[in-house]
Amino acid sequence: MRFIGAGARPGQPQVDHDLVFTVPNLLTVLRFMGVPLFVWLVLSQKEYGYAVLVLAVMGSTDWVDGYIARRFNQTSKLGRILDPMADRLALIAVAVTLAIAGVVQWWYLAALVIPDAILATASLLYFHSHPDLPVSRIGKIRTALLLAGTPLLVLSKLSVPLTEVYFVAAWIFLGLGLLGHWVAAYNYFWAIVRKGRGLRNGGQPLNNDGGAT
After folding, report:
1. CA triplet 96, 101, 102: central angle to 5 degrees?
2. pLDDT digits (tens, 9 = 90+) for 26-60
3. What mean pLDDT value characterizes the chain?
4. Is residue 213 part of a domain?
5. I want to staple 195 with a disulfide (CB 3.0 to 4.6 A). Which of 2, 80, 103, 205 is the partner?
6. Does the structure show a pLDDT above 90 at 210?
7. Domain range holding 170?
8. What is the H or E stretch that residue 54 is in?
9. Would you state the pLDDT for residue 202?
10. In a 3-state reduction of DSSP, which class is residue 76?
11. Where are the beta strands (DSSP E) in 8-98?
């Protein structure tokens, strides 16, 4: 079974419906709810073991909701916006929490936030809102790497065997994820510019192949 685009039916076009209450959207909301729970577990309770479990659930729902949406034709315009928002909120909030807890350095948080701040500014300048661009393959891989590396890094802080292995594996995932984050942001920035200029120059967006992050 493939991980990127899993559940897609060959030969059937994917249509974004005007649906709100779908299983994928409910799973996305669950991912939103996992963020404050993770923050509370790490900063208030110092329960890193349960925090790893929360991260694992959040990471798995990111894949499951996409699979269900494609497999059962439950893709929606709302989900197309909510899903990357949930990913971004989770990644940044988790990074802030771990930086406060001393698990990661503040440069890691900056490496996540700076590209997003640039993209948010570009989106507001050109669209005054969300640019509504498709998620790119690089963006999907980047998110998967970061969601895999973060729980491994937290796990390396527990009193369990093989913590050194978890630590090294975590930073391999996170390093590749950060690289993908900047590459995806670069592609997305120019996709925003092309689409924005196209709309301003004639009402039709210019062709873009960057995709969203």
Report:
1. 95
2. 988 988 899 999 999 999 999 999 999 999 998 88
3. 84
4. no
5. 205
6. no
7. 23-202
8. helix 48-71
9. 66
10. strand
11. none
In whole angstroms, give the CA distance from residue 64 to residue 57: 10
Distance CA 74, CA 71 (A): 8
Q: How many domains does the chain have?
A: 1
- Paired tokens of 128: 């005054």
CB atoms within 10 A of CB 207: 9
Count of alpha carbons within 13 Å of 185, Cβ hemisphere only?
20
Residue of 22, 37, 199, 76 lying closest to 128 (CA atoms): 199
pLDDT level of residue 160 (50, 70, 90 thresholds): confident
- 10 in any annotated domain: no
Structure tokens at 165: 């292995």
Q: Looking at residue 89, which CATH number applies to its domain?
A: 1.20.120.1760
Question: Per the domain annotation, does 77 fall within a domain?
Answer: yes
> What's the chain's length in residues?
213
Give the integer Cα–Cα distance in Å for 25 and 135: 16
Mind giving me the DSSP string for 106-164?
HHHHHHHHHHHHHHHHHHHHHHSS----PBPHHHHHHHHHHHHHHHHHHHTTSS-TTHH
Residue 115: phi and psi, rounded to 5, are: -60, -40
CA dist 154 and 103 (Å) reads 7
The torsion angles phi and psi of 30, rounded to 5 degrees, stand at -60, -40
Going by C-alpha positions, the residue among 186, 188, 156 that lies closest to residue 172 is: 156
C-alpha–C-alpha distance, residues 80 and 131, integer Å:
11
Evaluate if residue 209 carries a pLDDT over 50. no
Residue 139 placed within a domain: yes
